UniProtKB/TrEMBL annotation:
Organism, as annotated: Cuerna arida
One Pfam family it belongs to: FMO-like
Name under which the protein is recorded: Flavin-containing monooxygenase
Gene3D superfamilies: FAD/NAD(P)-binding domain
Family in the record: Belongs to the FMO family.
């Protein structure tokens, strides 16, 4: 009986917290942000989604642009043109809302983006979004969340107050470049996979891809169809390498 009383008290306390948290901010209109917006709206809360781009989809949005956008904000997405998901589509979906493509298991990025657009339309989530709004600062004051955003088209800054906050701006949107001794002396072009978009610009070139993860493997496959030669250099160990260490493998590798 004592345990039952404790559970009832906890349940009442949780309900009280939910009832008070009527103003909810969501940062990002990608998959997580859309899901958060849908369920907070369904619970009767007031929800506002701040999205720095012009539409929903988050990192699944493709753009040829790299570096910064028209407003000088770093490009968030790492999406490249020919990407397919590397897990079955059944684990890249919201419960009870299947993909339209029932034949293929590994979908294209365009199909994933279409799925997210349909999800947003299904629950009228775009009506909750403030697009082209860049979140500049978030702070806590007097039991409230203060979210300062920049309305990019109008170049106006404004601070909103909320009772609850979801941070849904994604993972790995800021590229991390490994230090390679001597790389500053390399006279060719170099880029992080975050800025890769399509393989055609590498036609006729000799390309070195450093890394052993999913992106490195996928880019090796795509670029090898156009480049004169591709060297795939997975990390051997955690010791520091030099630029000479990487390029000495060029004679050992070729296109596959």
């Amino acid at each position: 009986a004592q345990c039952s009383s404790s559970v009832d008290t906890t349940t009442k306390r949780r309900r009280a917290v939910i009832k008070m948290a009527v103003r909810v901010a969501v940062v990002g209109a990608g998959p997580a942000g859309l899901c958060a917006a849908r369920h907070t709206q369904a619970a009767g809360m007031s929800c506002t989604v701040f999205e720095q781009s012009g539409d929903v989809g988050g990192t699944w949005q493709y753009t040829d642009c790299v570096g910064t956008d028209a407003y000088g904000i770093p490009i968030h997405t790492s999406m490249y043109r020919d990407l397919r998901i590397n897990v079955p589509k059944d684990v890249v979906m919201f419960p009870g809302i299947p993909h339209k493509n029932t034949e293929d298991s590994y979908l294209t990025s365009e199909e994933i983006l279409e799925y997210l657009h349909n999800y947003a339309d299904m629950f009228n989530l775009r009506a909750l979004c403030k697009f082209n709004h860049y979140v500049k600062r978030i702070s806590r004051e007097g039991g409230e969340w203060l979210v300062t955003v920049i309305d990019l088209p109008n170049n106006e800054e404004r601070t909103y107050k909320f009772d609850a906050l979801f941070i849904c701006n994604g993972l790995n949107n800021k590229p991390m470049t490994a230090y390679i001794k001597g790389a500053e002396n390399f006279v060719g072009s170099s880029m992080h996979s975050h800025d890769y978009r399509k393989p055609e610009p590498f036609a006729g070139q000799r390309v070195l891809i450093v890394g052993g993860g999913a992106s490195a493997l996928d880019l090796t496959n795509h670029i090898s169809k156009f480049a004169d030669k591709v060297t795939f250099r997975p990390p051997r160990d955690k010791r520091q390498c030099t630029i000479e260490d990487h390029f000495q493998l060029q004679d050992e590798s070729s296109n596959n």
